[in-house]
Structures are given as C-alpha cells and as structure tokens.
Amino acid sequence: MSAALESAAAKRGREMAGRVKEHCPELVPFLKELHALGMIDGWRSVTYCGPVDGAPQYHAAPSTLFGNELLAWNAAQKRKDRR
Fold first, then answer.
1. Tens digits of per-residue pLDDT, 1-54?
2. What angle do CA 37, 40, 45 make, to 5 degrees?
3. Is this structure's pTM higher than 0.90?
4. Residues 6+ apart with CB under 8 A from 30
5. Contact, 40 vs 46, CB < 8 A?
C-alpha cells in the first residue's frame, strides 16, 4: 500500500472512530472485541455509523446481518411496529 493510500485509510479510520464514539458509544467495546478476535482490522472496517434514518435499507433476514447493519435493521423494525 502506498504512503498516500495508507495515510488516507488512517484518516478515514480516525474519522470513523470519532463518529462511532459520538453516535453509538455502546458499540466501542463490541468493535474492540471484534478487533481482538481478528474479525476486523480496525476502525477502517467500520463502514457506517450514524442516525438509523440515514442507514442503508436492508431486505434480509436478521441472521444475514451483522454489527451496525443488525442494529439498524432492528431499529427500523421497532419504528415499523410503532406505526
């Protein structure tokens, strides 16, 4: 990986860490555990963190979702149930 790409990936990782800590601080221990288990390579592996309304829409069973996607799916289902 070139120095420029490595620097860009590191910057993106720092930005994502800030977003997760701001919007979903309860996920930090979970993500640290995934990293310790070798399931993600760090904050660069986190691709979305933000309000559920801005989350991508999924049309899959919960068993196919993981991490942030599962949290977003569950929140969307709760909103549907309230309507």
1. 567 657 888 888 898 899 888 878 888 898 899 899 888 888 888 877 766 665
2. 160
3. no
4. 67
5. yes
Q: What is the DSSP string of 9-78?
A: HHHHHHHHHHHHHHH-GGGHHHHHHHHHTTSS-SGGG----S-GGGSPP--S-GGG--THHHHHHHHHHH
- CA 48 and chain centroid, separation: 5
The owner of tokens 């919007």 is: 23
Residues 23 and 51 sit within 8 Å (Cβ to Cβ):
yes
